[in-house]
Amino acid sequence: MLQSNQAEEYLLCKPNKNFEPGKTQIFVVTATMSMVMKKIKALDLKMMGNRKRQRRRTSMRSVLRKEKWNPLHSLGLSFQIYSMDKLLESGHDIDSINKEGLTALHKAVIGKKEAVISHLLRKGASPHIQDKDGATPLHYAVEVGAKQTVKLLIKYNVDVNVADNEGWTPLHVAVQSRNRDIAKILLANGADRSTENKDGKTALDISICYGKDFMSYDLARLIKIGPGN
User: Hey, which bits of the chain come out as E strands?
Assistant: First the structure.
């Protein structure tokens, strides 16, 4: 294999001399640099995805800070459904938001409180509201791996292709989280595999960046072929 610090020397000294049978040194250098650039591109994409996931996790951790709660949010996270109903009867807005733009439904999804999620939806909570980062309850349900919540939200006609402020759809999040089951549910319900985020990356691009293990291959195959095959 040609070392990177030999490239200039090879090009300056007899560049067309055969280095391997049927290949000139220029060919070998070009092929080597092409391979290096592909690896750098894949690494950059993976780092971008990891930063995105870390930011969303930081946002989810901030949900647990008491100073940012409001009464309905607090009652929902503690399963106080009767008290929630009393608060709503008194005129409290079911879709009231905190400083991050999160509703009680967002928080229940992040906390994986399935009974509270179902109750809020039956009471008329909107599953379409986006927080300050543009994330909907569906984005968070995908992020925390709540498959049943994903199915429930889809029954309430959420947009499976809604993008957050960085252009990430729930399918992008599912693939970045390497959750095949949820990716399959989203695709079966109309998720657009060709949608690009603001970095120009599709869900397939993100699946490929994680390497050549079976899970990466399986996700890429699912996105290419579809959930019914």
Answer: 18-20, 23-24
